[in-house]
Write a structure and sequence with these properties.
Layout lengths: L4 E5 L12 E5 L13 H16 L10 H13 L2 H32 L2 H16 L6 H8 L3 H25 L3 H9 L4 H35 L8 H10 L3 H29 L9
Helix pairs in contact: 2-10, 3-4, 3-6, 3-8, 3-9, 5-6, 6-8, 8-10, 9-10
């Protein structure tokens, strides 16, 4: 998109009679937000997929055409398989996400507002971050059994780490002048948290929230292939055994839609909550 320019006229020099010079000012901002702009990329990919399938350049056994995938999704929905698996996956992701979000926020507040809390918490979280979360699956199975509990626990760990890291970083980045001003104004601890800490930490919190939402779906697709009897991951694992690539693509597309919708919801909430900020995004 070409940059929009505006013109301003400089006043003529006194007594010279010269014409004013016109200065051109270049706008450097990205411009106005386009409606539903984030759908453009997925729609282009879908169009390329459909065009390649119609032209016969794709192996239909490996990558079925979009209309074939849609027919498979309709059949799975009609026979009741897909609704049950979707609800099961949403329930697992929801429980794990809620636990991880709560833990991440509480730990970040305790670590970011207290030196003692930072000494006890931050190093432990950094150590946990360095350990591959999916590598904890065998240990959690021994501790919690092979049922639903260990799946929810792993999802919670995947979620709480980015929430903690970004919220803690935002808390640490609050300007000390605001803290000094709060002390001069003799604010109480509660008022300080409400008026200074929360507004200062919200931008980082929303970044961690978006990463946590995405992480919950990424962890779920792996966990649902371990001793599961329902869920989208289980559906895809069974389809792999029978060579049903169309069913696998149905599961992947649903995961992608869930991730896109959840991220868009978080972005919408972020824009409403942080409407007071003037940034390039708004």
């Amino acid at each position: 998109m070409s940059a929009v320019t505006t013109t301003t006229a400089a006043p003529p020099a006194a007594g010279t009679g010269e014409l004013p010079q016109v200065r051109r000012r270049r706008r450097l901002s990205p411009g106005r937000r386009l409606p539903a702009a984030r759908l453009l990329g997925p729609l282009v990919l879908l169009a390329l997929w459909a065009g390649a399938s119609a032209a016969g350049t794709l192996d239909t056994g490996a990558v079925p055409a979009p209309w074939t995938v849609l027919r498979t999704a309709g059949r799975l929905w009609t026979d009741g398989t897909l609704p049950t698996d979707v609800l099961t996956s949403l329930e697992r992701a929801g429980y794990g996400f809620a636990i991880g979000l709560t833990a991440g926020v509480l730990l970040a507040l305790a670590s970011g507002l207290s030196r003692a809390g930072e000494a006890l918490i931050d190093g432990t979280v950094q150590l946990n971050r360095a350990i591959p979360t999916l590598g904890l699956i065998p240990l959690f199975i021994l501790w919690l059994g092979i049922g639903e509990t260990f799946k929810i626990a792993i999802i919670a760990i995947v979620v709480y780490i980015p929430v903690y890291l970004n919220t803690h970083a935002a808390l640490s980045g609050i300007d000390t002048r605001f803290v000094e001003l709060a002390e001069v104004q003799d604010l109480s601890r509660f008022a300080f948290v409400r008026q200074v800490v929360i507004p200062g930490a919200l931008p980082g919190f929303f970044v961690g929230l978006r990463l946590g939402v995405t992480g919950s779906w990424l962890g779920l697709v792996v966990l649902e292939q371990i001793n599961a009897t329902s869920g989208l991951g289980y559906l895809m694992f069974q389809a792999q055994n029978y060579g049903q690539s169309d069913v696998i693509l149905v599961g992947l597309l649903i995961y992608g839609v869930f991730g896109l919708v959840s991220d868009s919801v978080v972005r919408l909430i972020e824009r409403r909550v942080l409407s007071w900020r003037r940034t390039l995004s708004n």
